[in-house]
From TrEMBL:
It catalyses: L-proline + a quinone = (S)-1-pyrroline-5-carboxylate + a quinol + H(+). Belongs to the proline oxidase family. This is Proline dehydrogenase. Keywords: FAD, Flavoprotein, Oxidoreductase, Proline metabolism. It comes from Cylindrodendrum hubeiense. PANTHER family: PROLINE DEHYDROGENASE 1, MITOCHONDRIAL, PROLINE OXIDASE. InterPro entries: FAD-linked_oxidoreductase-like, Proline_DH_dom, Proline_oxidase. Residues 133-219 form the Proline dehydrogenase domain. Its cofactor is FAD. The keyword Glycoprotein does not apply. GO terms for molecular function: FAD binding; proline dehydrogenase activity. It comes from the Eukaryota.
Length: 225
């Protein structure tokens, strides 16, 4: 499932809670088998996929977007909804500019942008960029800005920032707005840093391209009230 659309039709939500919970558990447990079997894919595509995803290939995505615009909807939101696997017990690789997961994540978000036009939106979930990127965000989020190691942390997280810059540049050129998702408190300091740095570059002359998400229920944001 490569692209997600923030529109729901209620097909899945109408299922009884017990049935829905059972389907979710089965899908998580058997995801690798489902991906390899067209027969098992069919019920997933007819329920969850049609409800939460706009398509798996560009022609389908563009056709469905055209139908939404014909209904009078404007400002389509697309997201490459990949999740990185956590808790595998494996030590993640050190993040580099050529990190395969990072490069794939950037490439897929650029493909997502190719389906969007002026005044549309792309939502970014930064933890989808791979285990090395997530480990770097974790490391940065734990640093004290007054420590001697903070400068090194800035340089390391800057690799991720450079990758994001590629996405933000294309989005700005196309007039597409970027919505950066809020995530767990362990990642959020790094996400906020990356978002604010991008805002300083791309949000100028009274025009905003980058939008961050602030969890106002969190104690860290209590000074904003």
């Amino acid at each position: 499932m490569r692209f997600g659309l923030l529109v729901q039709h209620g097909r899945v939500a109408a299922l009884p809670q017990g049935v829905l919970s059972a389907i979710i558990r089965m899908t998580k447990k058997c995801s690798s088998y489902i991906s390899a079997s067209p027969i098992l894919q069919w019920p997933v595509h007819q329920t969850f996929y049609k409800t939460f995803c706009i398509g798996s290939e560009k022609p389908d995505i563009k056709t469905n977007i055209k139908e939404l615009r014909a209904m009078g909807l404007d400002g389509i939101v697309l997201a490459f909804a990949r999740e990185s696997k956590f808790g595998s017990g494996e030590k993640p690789a050190v993040l580099t500019k050529e990190d395969p997961s990072l490069r794939e994540w950037v490439s897929m978000n650029l493909e997502t942008l190719d389906c969007l036009t002026n005044n549309d939106y792309i939502a970014l979930r930064l933890t989808g960029a791979g285990q090395a990127a997530v480990a770097e965000m974790d490391h940065f989020s734990q640093q004290d800005p007054t420590s001697v190691h903070y400068k090194t942390s800035l340089e390391r997280i800057g690799i991720f920032g450079d990758a994001l810059h590629e996405i933000f540049t294309v989005a700005s050129q196309k007039g597409v707005k970027v919505l950066i998702d809020a995530e767990s408190s362990g990642h959020q300091p790094a996400i906020d840093h990356l978002a604010l740095a991008a805002m300083a570059t791309f949000n100028k002359n009274g025009k905003a391209t980058i939008y961050n998400t602030y969890q106002m229920y969190g104690k860290v944001h209590q000074s904003c009230y």
